[in-house]
Amino acid sequence: MEKNIFSRKLIDLRRKNQLSQAGLANKLFVTRQSISKWENGESEPSIDKLISIAEIFNTSLDNLIIGNMLDKGKLVSISHINKSYDNQVLNNLSLDIYDNERIALLGLNGSGKTTMISIMVGLKNADSGDVKFSFNKKKGLKLMPQNDVLINDMKVSELLKLTQLLNKVKDNNHIESLVKEFNFTELMDHYVGSLSGGQKRRLSLLLSLMSPSKLLVLDEPTVGMDLETIDILWNHLEHVTGSILMVTHDFNQIDKFFSRVVLLKDGRIENDMSVDKIHSHNQTVEQWYRTNNGGLNHD
């Protein structure tokens, strides 16, 4: 059995079914520590337990053990990136992103998070190093930037139509569903410039989710959002396919939603760990962050 595939598949299935390690352990009549070891690749379940896991999650043994080929796919490879302005912002930074991951990118103000994202998506150039994608970046990479990039003198309906055309989205029912979900039905004839700050953040989110993505990148999406829009964000992300990379310090949601946390410090990857491994050490992500970053003064 390929441990990395099984471990990722087990974590993914458990999260999708909103089942804790303890809950799965009870169904399998094993300890929570056993589940933790399976998910960390430290041990493997017996064939009887594998069959039981497949039955619990209504999947095949082949899918559980082998996974489909996409499960093994590396989406992005960031290699030895350096970037300086007056001071060095990124220092020999390397990071790989795989299919079906939920990554929270953490770090203090000035640690290089937004610069890394800007270089990765092509908005800025690195001084050295490279970024490689295994998919068509124009089609499969979607970004919600930290600051809204909207056309204020267009109506909401016009901007939606333009984005739909640019992304070649043909499913009008899907667009109508998003408009309703994001509460824009009564705002379609309003000019974008007349929207409140919270409504603009909600519109930016809607535009970034209009078409399917291999990798969705969200840079501090909840900044400036009202509580209603924050709820819409998290509810919708539960149904997003592909991988997600998000800059966020909403620790309650990180514990619930994300599979992996990456900590930037002084332009380097200081730590990179699965959320379940953090939990297996009886820590929340917030406690882990305090321990590894010396506090919570983040941007």
From TrEMBL:
Recorded source organism is Apilactobacillus kunkeei
Domain ABC transporter spans what residues? Answer: 73-291
Q: Which InterPro entries match?
A: AAA+_ATPase, ABC_transporter-like_ATP-bd, ABC_transporter-like_CS, ABC_transporter_ATP-binding, Cro/C1-type_HTH, Lambda_DNA-bd_dom_sf, P-loop_NTPase
Per UniProt, residues of the HTH cro/C1-type domain are 10-64
Keyword ATP-binding attributed? yes
Q: Which UniProt keywords apply?
A: ATP-binding, Nucleotide-binding, Transport
UniProt-recorded name of the protein: ATPase component of ABC transporter with XRE-family HTH domain protein
Coiled coil (UniProt feature): none
